[in-house]
Specification:
Blueprint: E1 4-9, E2 13-17, E3 24-30, E4 45-46, E5 53-55, H1 58-63, E6 77-78
Parallel strand pairs: 1-6
Antiparallel strand pairs: 1-2, 1-5, 2-3, 3-4
Length: 94
């Protein structure tokens, strides 16, 4: 079973990638202060070639002020267990 990836996009948006639609991400929280150019979250966004995407950690959830406990399920979600230290970038999502 493929897991939903919890990700940080371009260091300004916390979101997730559903394995059924791996070329899109949905937004949990976008920070205009960190450089997001949108504040509304109407639906999934397409992943662009220029997007830098990495797995999110619990620290990222704290930084974006999103409660992590509902996502702390390694059977369902893939996330960075290193708490933000040496995070790997996702090279290819499709």
């Amino acid at each position: 079973m493929k897991k939903t990836k919890l990700v940080v996009v371009n260091e300004h948006t916390l979101g997730y990638i559903d394995p059924l639609v791996p070329k899109n991400y949905s937004i949990l929280h976008a920070s205009i202060l960190k450089g997001a150019t949108f504040e509304l979250h109407p639906g999934p966004k397409s992943i662009l070639q220029s997007d830098k995407i990495r797995l999110a950690s619990k620290k990222d959830f704290d930084d974006f002020r999103v409660h992590f406990s509902g996502f702390n399920d390694p059977e369902k979600y893939e996330f960075d267990h290193s708490h933000g230290i040496d995070c790997e970038e996702i090279e290819s999502l499709w």
